[in-house]
């Protein structure tokens, strides 16, 4: 590939898929810890997952910008996750681990789960175009 920006964007796409898989495991871990009353451990895991979610959003937006129309599938990830991330913060501040775990399992995880296949589509479309 001659375009280094496009090449970097495609490498980032592959990383996005991997990050989504890691986040899925982290969400399960946080849910288990939170529902078991192990709040301190869940809090540490949530902080780590939050950093990864921020990286995910930044990576998606960067790829979408670098690839233009070809990266459209990754555009708007931030907007789809933002309301639920705010809900996580609110639940955490209230110490409501049951609600937090529910938001992770039923709102955040499915939306993050959609991002990996979107990144795969971007990679597949780029491969087909070359």
Outline the fold blueprint.
Layout lengths: L3 H32 L3 H29 L9 H18 L2 H33 L1
Helix pairs in contact: 1-2, 1-4, 2-3, 3-4
- Any idea of the CATH topology? Four Helix Bundle (Hemerythrin (Met), subunit A)
Number of continuous helical runs:
4
Beta-strand fraction estimate: under 5%
Query: How many domains make up the 3D coordinates?
Result: 1
Give the integer mean of the pLDDT values: 88
What fraction, in percent, of the residue positions are helical?
over 70%
Describe the biggest sheet?
none
The tally of strands reads 0
Note the run of SSEs as H and E: HHHH
How does the helix and strand content classify structurally? mainly alpha
Q: Using only CA atoms, what is the Rg?
A: 16 Å
Give an overview in words.
The protein is mainly alpha-helical and 130 residues long. It has one domain (4-129): Four Helix Bundle (Hemerythrin (Met), subunit A), CATH 1.20.120. The chain contains 4 helices and no strands. It has helices spanning 4-35, 39-67, 77-94, 97-129. The N and C termini lie close together (8 Å). The mean pLDDT is 88.
Short description:
The protein is mainly α and about 130 residues long. The chain has helices at about 5-35, 40-65, 75-95, 95-130.
């Amino acid at each position: 590939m001659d375009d280094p920006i496009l090449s970097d964007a495609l490498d980032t796409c592959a990383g996005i898929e991997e990050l989504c898989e890691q986040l899925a495991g982290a969400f399960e871990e946080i849910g288990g810890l939170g529902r078991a009353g192990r709040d301190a451990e869940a809090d540490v895991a949530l902080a780590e997952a939050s950093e990864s979610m921020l990286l995910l959003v930044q990576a998606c937006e960067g790829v979408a910008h670098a690839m233009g129309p070809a990266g459209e599938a990754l555009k708007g990830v931030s907007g789809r996750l933002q309301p639920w991330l705010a809900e996580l913060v609110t639940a955490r501040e209230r110490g409501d681990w049951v609600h937090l775990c529910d938001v992770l399992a039923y709102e955040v995880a499915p939306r993050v789960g959609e991002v990996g296949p979107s990144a795969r589509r971007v990679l597949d479309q780029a491969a087909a175009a070359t």
